[in-house]
Amino acid sequence: MTRTVVVTGATSGIGRATALELAGRGDRLVLAARSPATLDEVRDECRAAGARAIAVPMDVTEPGAVAALADAAQAEYGRVDAWVHTAAVMSYGRFDETPAEVFEQVVRTDLLAAAAVAREALLRFRAGGGTLVLTGSVLGHITAPYMSGYVAAKWGLQGLARTLQQEARETPGVAICLVNPGSVDTPVYRQAANYLGRVGRPPPPIASPERVARAIAHCLDRPRREVSVGRLNVVMRFGFTALPGVYDALVGPLMRRAGLTRQPIAAHRGIVFTPNPAGEAVRGGWLPEVSQVVRAVGGRAATVASAVRRRLP
Ligand SMILES: NC(=O)c1ccc[n+]([C@@H]2O[C@H](COP(=O)([O-])OP(=O)(O)OC[C@H]3O[C@@H](n4cnc5c(N)ncnc54)[C@H](OP(=O)(O)O)[C@@H]3O)[C@@H](O)[C@H]2O)c1
Prior knowledge:
With 313 residues, the chain is of the alpha/beta class.
């Protein structure tokens, strides 16, 4: 059966990779985010992949916008079978140096809007069931300094998702999945608000957004309570839970070393209140493309081979 899937956060990173992944699988798509031009671009990419797709520009934090999006999906396709919610924003800075309105908008976008999406999705699933995929983070299980709004929202989302999963046991056919990535190569780090003076980056190991997109698509086929994408997620969760003193001593220095670049940046609100289409893409450029790695390894191998040849008698 061809599914109708709503993707909120479809203009960038994981949401955009998911839209393209689902387009390749033949799902009918309803693509949503704030930037109309980028959304049209993604819609065209999905259509080029052979899928039916419509673009609905909207802001998930605007009252009534999520319901209007669901109405648009139903008007176009007659039903909503699944909803993948990836829309989120991030802010770097000490809690006491982050403007209150920025902290609040991060929580509004990352937690309250996710609740609005869940409310609307569950309403639309009443007719024939459906699957909701929420995008959490390993930061919904552990904490790190300088990201208080984001961390608070992701812990809240973790609690919300688990509660909805327990309630969904009473509604056969309805599934709620939480996908928790570690570091992913997306534009979110440069698009974030920043009150820290240094540009953020994903600490290694870094997964590709396409890998997270495949995990999300897999959840739609076979719903699971929670999916973790990231090789160190389990290790970090263990350290946070079993050795809190050691964890707290290490996490600050590690965050400053691996989670921030040396690139200075003036305080700015990033995309917390308004989108930045120029910064939107599937990848953030932190992870070299496979072709680049192959070229680099090939180049090194050729250099070594010619050096060896020169030394041979
Ligand atoms: N990248 C990582 O390392 C990582 C790790 C763990 C978890 N995650 C989670 O994965 C999800 C996707 O993140 P990403 O890295 O792909 O981020 P991203 O590249 O910055 O994409 C975020 C998406 O959310 C949309 N968005 C933001 N605010 C919105 C609003 N108010 N209304 C509607 N759409 C809005 C953005 O589009 P517009 O700006 O055009 O609206 C964009 O399409 C998020 O939940 C994030 O927390 C990411």
